[in-house]
Amino acid sequence: MSDRLKKYIEQEEPREFDPPSGHEDRFMARLQTLESQNEQSRRRVSDRFKWMVVAASLAILMTLGISVWNLKDVAEPELAEQKMELQEVSPEMKSAEQYLVAELAKKKERATEIAATDPDLKGFIDQLDQLEKDYEKLELELNNNRDNERIIAGMIQNYRLRLELLERLFAKYQTKKRLEEQHS
Q: Distance from the CA of 140 to the CA of which of 12, 15, 35, 64 falls in 20 to 30 A?
């Protein structure tokens, strides 16, 4: 059957099987038109896609931010629960800590009042606040190393330093007050 087809094509004029004149030009023009339309639609889809990517990225970032914020809020109470105080070490430490905390509270209240009236003494309060932060770190360390005598000694020393600092503040205030009275 393929032989008969070959013979038929060879016998007929080759022009019958050629496309009409200008066909190739019309085909190329139409192809270019379709390509340009296709490219424009791709750009529109690509622009829409870019906005979708940006929107999705923002949504993911916001979700992660909120998650981290919530985890931070959850983690902070856990840290507070992990602090171990001296009174949990032994009964002797409990009574010592209660005494030291009571003394510090009384003296710090008075020192804060004095520092409010005399800005020169505010540095003492700043040092006192730093010692309190150091003490909180020691409490966390004590939770991890309950039997470490150095941490317990450091906590007791921190209480002593805070009391000494308050005593120096009071002494400086009294000296300053006497000097003002003498010059008046």
A: 64
Domain count for the chain: 2
Residues 6 and 74 in one domain: yes
Q: What whole-number distance in Å separates Cα of residue 77 and Cα of residue 44?
A: 51
Please give the full DSSP string across 90-158, using - where no structure is assigned. Answer: -HHHHHHHHHHHHHHHHHHHHHHHHHHH-GGGHHHHHHHHHHHHHHHHHHHHHHH-TT-HHHHHHHHHH
Cβ-contact 139, 152 below 8 angstroms: no
* Backbone phi and psi for residue 73, each to the nearest 5 degrees, phi listed first: -65, -35
- The range of the structural domain enclosing residue 15 comes to 1-82
Residues 96 and 137 in one domain: yes
Q: Mean pLDDT lowest for which of 23-37, 38-52, 164-178?
A: 38-52
- Interval 51-86: pLDDT, tens: 666 677 777 777 777 777 777 655 554 444 456 666
Calculate the CA dihedral of residues 150, 156, 157, 161 and round it to 10 degrees: 160
Residue 95 and residue 169 share a domain: yes
Q: Which two tokens stand for residue 26?
A: 């019309």
pLDDT tens column, 31-42: 788 777 777 766
